[in-house]
Specification:
The protein is about 30% helix and about 30% strand. With about 130 residues, it is α+β, with helices and mostly antiparallel strands. A six-stranded mixed β-sheet has the order 1-2-3-6-4-5, with helices on one face.
Amino acid sequence: MTRKNISGTSPFEPIIGFSRAVRIGNRVHVSGTGPVGADEADVAEQTDQCLTLIAAALKNAGSSIEHVYRTRMYLTRAEDWEAAGRIHGKFFGLIRPAATMVVVAALLNPNWRIEIEADACIPDEKPV
């Protein structure tokens, strides 16, 4: 299968050794995406920013938000689940991917209240 690494804007990609997304065949796996640029915002705005960044990574990989089939959301506060869930629903209400929401002790940036991963496909393309 053909592999393509999709870079993002994080200066930590080469240091840590990760890509914003990796495309293998007709599958795209988007790394945990924090709300970069919305660090001080509430959890709803942070969730929107995470999903907007994920949508950009998917576009760069040849997919789109409409083709997401799995998301994983990492929250630092259990009480944020509903606000984060509403924004997730704004992006995925019709698509309804398999989704997981987990509460964690902390994320890398202490101001981040959410980080999201996503998996998508490129449906019109056969696996390589």
